Amino acid sequence: MTTGVRIGYGTLFKSSNGASPAVLSTLPEVTAITPPGMSRDTVDATHEESPEAWREFIAGLKDGGEVSLEINFVPGNAAATAMMAEFDLDGPSAKIDRVIIFPGGSYFSFAAILTAFEPDAPIDDKMVASLTFKVSGKPTLVQV
Predict the structure, then answer these.
(1) CB 119 within 8 A of CB 87
(2) Of 125, 108, 36, 109, residue with least CA distance to 72
(3) Which of 50, 52, 38, 143 is nearest to 100 (CA)?
(4) Which helix (H) or strand (E) holds 117?
(5) Among the four residues 48, 49, 52, 58, which has the most C-beta atoms within 10 Å?
(6) Which positions of the chain have pLDDT values less than 50?
(7) Helix or strand holding residue 53 (H, E)
(8) Measured between alpha carbons, how far is 82 from 76 in angstroms, rounded to an integer?
C-alpha cells in the first residue's frame, strides 16, 4: 500500500484581522509549525469502596494546548511588526482566530493568544524568532 504522507513544505499560518467578514493574513518567513497539542485532565474519583483498592478516574477538562512557530526574524518586517502589535493587545482583543493550512487543503482552526515572542540573533547563523500561542477553546481539524 502506498503512503499518503507529505512533507510540511507549503504549510501556512494565518491570523484573522477581527473584521466581519474576517480577512486572514499569512505570517511571512515561517520555517516550522507545531500544531495544537491537545490534552485532557483526569479527575481522581477513587472512594472507600473502589474495587480491589484500584484508583478510579473520570475524564476532566480538555485543553487545546499550544501552537509554536519558528520564523526568520527580520526586524521591521511584517511578521516582527505584527507580533509586537499583538503584545499591545489586552483582554478579549488578545484572543485572535488562527488557521494552519496544510498542503492538500486540510486545516486546523482555533482561537489563540500570543504568549511568547523570542527573537534570537546568533553571531554565526540567521536571526530567528520563536513564537508560542495558547489555544483558547476547541481547535477544529478539517480534513479534506
Answers:
(1) no
(2) 125
(3) 143
(4) strand 107-120
(5) 58
(6) none
(7) none
(8) 10
